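A.,

Following up on our hallway conversation. Structure tokens first:
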């Protein structure tokens, strides 16, 4: 007499199987809550996994006592699907679990501040000003700024950030906070071009101001004229402490020819040579 190949699983076996599954689910949920401190901090992916897990356990428990069935009428999306038994429990758990999913009451957001578009240079120093519900600011350390315990109402919202870093343009930017509150937000700053405003006075050998002289810098690259009191001022695309050759002409005659160190902090006094 042939032996029956497949025997139906007894109700007691279903109870044991689903009971073990339920214990595993509780152990996994408790472990995740311990390490994340609050269930609201679970990522959506982990929460959905646990939700499907407990739905399968509940459905599996009922498979030992109820018969599952499904029936579809119609064509594609315009048809109707009828479910019965444990399958209904599975769908209800998934539906209400997603509707009632925990939401964190606060979150952290991290900014990484780059000094260029290529991500090769992190900004160190300066301050990042952020307009949340109220203005806030934090110092940029090794390119990173973190704001902690922000209200969950800001998730998915657009905020204004303004970096204040020496050598970079202070331009406000609009950024969106990710809905999960976990993604790092990148900021890319634009370097300021080197610029220096220099000033000075042209005098003769007696130290008296000399008006209306032509001042030529860097072999003719930059030029300016002294005013009626011998004063001059101009902006140059150079760094602080740059040396440039300087020539001064009085009535088209060369009266000064020397290299000078330029600084925005120390005005120059240029003394003409004796004729």
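Then the amino acids I'd put at each of the 275 positions:
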């Amino acid at each position: 007499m042939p032996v029956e190949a497949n025997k139906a699983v007894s109700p007691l076996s279903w109870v044991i199987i689903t009971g073990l599954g339920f214990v595993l689910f509780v152990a996994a949920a408790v472990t995740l809550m311990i390490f994340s401190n609050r269930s609201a901090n679970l990522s959506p992916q982990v929460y959905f996994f646990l939700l499907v897990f407990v739905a399968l356990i509940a459905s599996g428990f009922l498979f030992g006592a109820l018969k599952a069935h499904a029936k579809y009428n119609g064509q594609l999306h315009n048809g109707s699907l009828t479910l019965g038994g444990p399958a209904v429990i599975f769908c209800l758990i998934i539906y209400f679990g997603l509707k009632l999913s925990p939401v964190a009451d606060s979150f952290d957001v991290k900014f990484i501040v780059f000094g260029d578009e290529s991500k090769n240079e992190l900004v160190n120093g300066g301050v990042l000003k952020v307009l949340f519900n109220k203005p806030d600011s934090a110092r940029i350390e090794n390119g990173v700024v973190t704001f902690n315990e922000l209200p969950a109402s800001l998730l998915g919202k657009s905020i204004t950030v303004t970096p204040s870093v020496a050598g970079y343009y202070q331009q406000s930017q609009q950024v969106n906070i990710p809905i999960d509150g976990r993604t790092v937000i990148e900021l890319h700053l634009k370097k300021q071009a080197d610029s220096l405003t220099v000033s000075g006075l042209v005098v003769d050998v007696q130290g008296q101001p000399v008006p209306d002289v032509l001042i030529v810098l860097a072999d003719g690259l930059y030029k300016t004229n002294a005013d009626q009191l011998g004063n001059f001022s101009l902006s140059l695309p150079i760094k602080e402490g740059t040396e440039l050759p300087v020539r001064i002409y009085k009535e088209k005659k060369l009266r000064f020819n020397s290299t000078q160190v330029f600084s925005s902090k120390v005005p120059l006094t240029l003394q003409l040579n004796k004729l």
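The chain has three domains: 11-99, 106-188, 196-271. Curious whether your intuition agrees with the design.

B.
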